[in-house]
Amino acid sequence: MDSPSVRGTAGKDSSEAQKSFLDRQFSRIVIKEFPDKITPGDMLYFGGSCFAENLYSYWQDHFLPSVLSPFGSTYNPLSLRDSFTLLCEEGDIKEDELFFHRDLWSHSLFNTTISRADKNELLTVLNLELRRHRELLKESGFLILTLGTAFVYEEISSGKVVNNCHKRPGSDFRRYAMKPENVTEALKELSNRVCSINPSLKIILSLSPIRHLRDNAAENSLSKAVLRCGIDDYLQGCKDNEPGSFYFPSYEILLDELRDYRWYADDLCHPSRAASRYIMERFCETAADKALLSYMDEAESLKNLLEHKLRFPDSPEAVSFTEKKEQTLRDFQNKYPMALPPLSSSLVN
């Protein structure tokens, strides 16, 4: 009788048999190839939930041109739409759009980190950021958006959905869940806005794998389902995926492919660093062209070289290693002039 481990493998080499065995141990997500591939020279603009920051950091760690939204973490589609609508408009933020709370002036679409004690200073900072990011969005090749939750907070006094409550009393807001059709409509409006200033921009949507368990797991599942249905309806409505909108399954990779608490951080809500890295590697397999994949390998090697710590920096071996490192860095930057300055100067020295 054939051994169970090799049964049915006659005519196949051992590597194929081993691969077949490994493939049976977990459900590998099949990802549809993107027709528009990312090249090393493309600038990526990241926005959305805090998972967008993880993706942005990965791109930055590989010295690639990338931008992170100035609004901070934006979890729901309505706030994403409102944020990018504001970004794409030519006008400035006005004084009556700000509010004063806890000795700080703030804007409901921006994170508290940008708040200021002086109202005029905040207006200056916000409008400078908007003008700068408006130009960066015009120069970007891809917009990467991660949607986190379908639950929104609506300010009762104004009827407007806020991106950040800025620790105001809960009684100031009404919380409710969006419907899939609301998600779809918000994405359509967002797409129209950003493409009005950058018609060639490609949009990649993803459902954040971060679990929102502040309330309960059932609401988190409902929220993710609403977002996923809304995203799918939006993509179905794009004629031949024009103006170039695609879906990448970050949520599905963590939930169905990795599928284990060891891939989560200590809070059991956020993906671990290893999981985030794996998701980004799967992203590159799908979205990157051959030149970018080759670049990524070289950038990873350079990153490891720059991060190497010398125990005895004055030794002859250390001096030789430093010279090699500096030459490797120069060669890399000559080959890839679009690459950002690698890491910090402390790692180069």
Folded structure, characterized:
Helices cover 46% and strands 12% of the residues. It is α/β, with parallel strands linked by helices and 349 residues long. The chain has 2 domains: 42-288, 3-Layer(aba) Sandwich (Rossmann fold), CATH 3.40.50; 289-349, no CATH class. α2 links the parallel β1 and β2. The radius of gyration is 23 Å and the shape is globular. Mean pLDDT is 89; it is low at 1-11 and 343-349.
In brief:
This protein is an alpha/beta fold and 349 residues long. The protein is 46% helix and 12% strand.
Helix content: 40-55%
- Broad shape: globular
> What is the average of the pLDDT values?
89
Uncertain runs are 1-11, 343-349
Q: How do the strands line up in the largest sheet?
A: 2-1-5-9-10
- The CATH architecture of the largest domain would be 3-Layer(aba) Sandwich
Q: Assign the CATH class of the largest domain.
A: Alpha Beta
Strand count, sense and closure of the main sheet? Answer: 5 strands, parallel
Task: Specify the structural class.
Answer: alpha/beta
Taking the alpha carbons of the first and last residues, their distance comes to 63 Å
Number of strands: 10
Strand/helix succession: HEHEHEEHEEEEHEHEHHHHH
Beta-strand residue fraction: 5-15%
**Radius of gyration over all CA atoms, rounded:** 23 Å
**Count of the domains:** 2
Annotated CATH topology of the largest domain: Rossmann fold
For CATH, the homologous superfamily of the largest domain is named as SGNH hydrolase
List keywords for this structure.
single chain, 349 residues, Rossmann fold, 2 domains, three-stranded antiparallel β-sheet, disordered C terminus
